[in-house]
Amino acid sequence: MAASIEDVAKKANVSISTVSRVLNRRNIVNAETCKRVEAAIAELGYRPNVFARGLMLRKSNVLGLVLPDLHGEFYSEIIRGANLKTRELGFHLLVSSVSADDDGQDVLSVVGAQGLVDGIVVMVTEMSSLIRRTLANSSTPLVVLDGDIQGAKHDTVTIDHHNGAEALVRYLVSSNPRGRIVFLGGHETNLDTIDRLNAYRKVLAEVGIRPDPDDIAHLDYSYETAFDFASERVRDWAASGVTVFAANDEMAAGVVDAAIAATLAVPDDLRVVGFDDTRIAQLTRPRLTTVHVPMAEMGSKAIELLCQRLAEPDRPSTRVTLPTRLVVRESCGTL
Hints:
Layout: H1 5-12, H2 16-24, H3 31-44, H4 50-57, E1 62-67, H5 73-88, E2 92-97, H6 105-113, E3 119-123, H7 131-136, E4 142-145, E5 155-159, H8 161-175, E6 181-185, H9 191-206, E7 216-218, H10 223-231, H11 234-239, E8 243-246, H12 249-261, E9 271-273, H13 279-283, E10 290-292, H14 295-311, E11 319-322, E12 325-327
Parallel strand pairs: 1-2, 1-3, 3-4, 4-5, 5-11, 6-7, 6-8, 8-9
Antiparallel strand pairs: 10-12
Helix pairs in contact: 1-2, 1-3, 5-14, 8-9, 10-12
């Protein structure tokens, strides 16, 4: 049977409240008593209930991270960066997911209102995300990734998707000035897709190109959907000298594999580029030209801002925009 705080108090010949003070506010207990209590804790192997302790102190030393999904390298890199920074700053990380059609009420009420976390980082990727309404009414310290929540005080970490997409499309246009570029994005309401599509339209407009409606497709960021979509079109694309701009590396890999399945060569018959610079970009053959997104840094910076907010609750809101970087590899045929 696990040792209790009562067992520690009896072993050290002190009151339960003294044990609690040693655990939570060590500086107000004299050194001799501290040593006696700590010796009892070590001998009995006592482990305090962190959640009960958190409710009493209104401080759990646990931070929450809520993402739209936990699948895929994009999200795992955000988690990795957040976890490293959390441990560096002396906290623990609790991770969950809430999809765009879920208001997040269950998750946020448990981890926030019940005091299980000191603050929350939430990624909002859809304009229509139901979680926006829930967050607007939350009093838990908050950092938002990728968007803003009207009515809620929060800090923000965003990625400069627009400039990254601009740099990519400008590069494609400069290497093939009159070439047709097909854009494959995520859902129409996805904030990252909107930024990347706007950049695509802007650069093409600057050089006098108006994309055909068939040159823009909204998928779901998955390899499988992109593979199926491209399988029906790669031969026509190749015949028309198309370059495919997929709004993430997973979809770009799906297009490459669809081309290979149709006995087409990338980039000789079809040029393909991606976005994010995940490991997929380097594992695909040929390697993908893409835009590097600092995913781990995004998670790390969000935790840093959240801890600053906990230390200074009344400071002004901070917005951090992380830069992106064009990475040119073999898939667009310019190396």
